[in-house]
Amino acid sequence: MLRKLLENNVDIYEKDIHGKTTLHYAAENKCTDAVEILIKYGAYLNSQDIYQQTALHYAAGKNCKEIVELLVSNGADINAKNVNGQTALYYTAINDSNEIAEYLVSHGVSINSQDQEGNTALHYAIQNCNRDVAEVLLAHGAYVNLKNKDGCSAIFYAGNKEIIKLLITYGAALNLKENNGLLPIHYALESNNIKAVKGFIKNGVDINVVNKYGETLLFYAVYRNFSDMTKFLIKYGISINAIDKKGLTILDHAIWNLSYDMIRLLISFDAIGSSKGYGRNKSPSNFKDFDIF
Known about the structure:
InterPro entries: Ankyrin_rpt, Ankyrin_rpt-contain_sf, Multifunctional_regulatory. By secondary structure, the protein is an all-alpha fold. The protein is built from 16 helices and no strands.
């Protein structure tokens, strides 16, 4: 049917309201035969829809290696970017399409291209816990410490110990700070990801590292009522009575925030308040008058 339409001079370049041509739809629906016919009849391979996506973006997004190869081998722009500044390689990073990623990088795709937020394909592979694609990218020269606009390299988004180990193998900096002065371990803690936090500590990150306010990781865990994370940090050796730049301990902050569960938990580990704070230098035995038990 398609061949007959083309033989009768159907406009092969016509776009619909979404800016898509027939080639876009053929790639999106993984119709390899249709793509071959359209290429034979002169379809414009780099036509972009309203989101500036080409047929190659759609083929990569649908994990269709055969169509990706067809398009690239016939001259499709391998570095064409969509409205967000992303090439087809980004789609492989999101979808864990390591074979397509391997094909694209071996055919000249810009591996360290950054989108409008400054993210590379490696950032997306790590964010989506797609280790296989990440390894392909790193093996072909992805810059492991390249920062996005927030100042974050890929390791800030590492979600498990295996990915952390992979990134470290390729030279990831664990003490690299983002724009707000936070480290990758802070991001892992914000996600309440104990395994990732443990992975960072085991690879040399100081458990008592502080931010610009003098707050340790324990402050973050208590602020967010992460009880399991709090227990993990304490049992792993974090200083429970560390003082921030205001001269306050984490118990002071817990009392100020009326975090009763956290107050109980901290006191059970012998936390004390500071002379400046809301705990007024009280030790656990002094809290009998504090109606939380």
